[in-house]
Amino acid sequence: MFDRDRWQEIFHVLSANKLRTTLTAFGVFWGIFMMIIMVGSGNGLKNGVTRDMGGVAMNSSFMWTQSTSMPYKGLPKGRSFYFKNEDIEAIKRQIPEVEAVAPRNSLGGWQGSNNVIRGLRTGAFSIFGDEPAFFRVKPIVLIEGRLLNENDLAEKRKICVIGQRVKEMLFDDGEEVIGESIQVNGVYFMVVGVLRSKQKGENGDEENQSVFIPFSTFQKAFNYGDIVGWFAFLAKEDQDVVEVEAKVKQFLMARHKIHPEDRRAIGSWNMATEFRKISGLFTGIKWLSFVVGFFTLLAGAIGVSNIMLVIVKERTKEIGIRRALGATPMNVFSQILSESAFLTLIAGIAGILAGVWSLEGISSIIDSTGDGGSFTKPGVDLKLTLASLGILIIIGLGAGMIPARKAVSVKPITALRDE
Question: Where are the alpha helices (DSSP H) in 193-325?
């Protein structure tokens, strides 16, 4: 393996025709380079999407009402209905798989915005009525003050927590925020906290541009009665949130006299299902990258095999002389295999290094500009790198197998007569 003469011969053979060797090696280089780039880019996209979804509890589900699509018990199709406060309490009592329930209301409906006034400054922000449990579903970073608590709900306090963007638009830099009041639809609320969303993208922007009011205060201040716009719940850690969601939905359908087969009446969304879809998508992207990279590498290996056949043919007389001087078939076989594996391995390592450096460069540019969107930290892990090296060794040996067998089959007498 570490025979100096053998390695000198390998370098001599491969350097005899530098252009041919370089072009042959480029096929292997490009195959492994593209595989690293594709897998790393897939990881970058996965990291970006996961980051954008970050902060939302994996065992969470959201549920809201829609119009019915089937008549039931004398009630017509197309009927509208609302969740009520008692629905939330019933879920807490009757479904033990649920760890916490967080009802929510918003002024103007989903993604509605309202004028918020402070002195001469005005901004259009989302106004939510929440319970403390909602911040367990979509965790945030508390910047100043405190969050909503149970006493705020029980006493229907006119207080609020504001998003970071709300503070920036309604207050001057360095100005005291806690204890100041803002006006929402003619109702004054005292600011007790400032928060920032852990999510990125549109969802994070919405939280940062929102005002959070105690749920009970919201219902009273804005005449919502006992209406619940929608709610989120957390399934217990040992429960499948998809199964719990189905159980909660059937429970509410029975309470509101909705046909058991009506799939439209209650809308829902859970993090686990979405994450599984995304994970499946990125698994598909990863395997596609492997397949494309493998066949590109295979094409490179065929090129290596062909060039080694040419080299064997050019060295027919040399091989005959070596056989005549006592070289065994295994000596000749291992020499050709070594040359093929060495060429493949060197080209492949160069491709891996170029791919990793390219991904690191892209990652540095994204970090410095902060303009990657849903694409961040592209890269490949050590296991993939080691697996790629293993594949390269196998491909290199495979590429040299046919030329090596061809070399072994050369008869010394015939080779010595070769012109």
Answer: 201-208, 215-221, 241-255, 271-314, 316-324
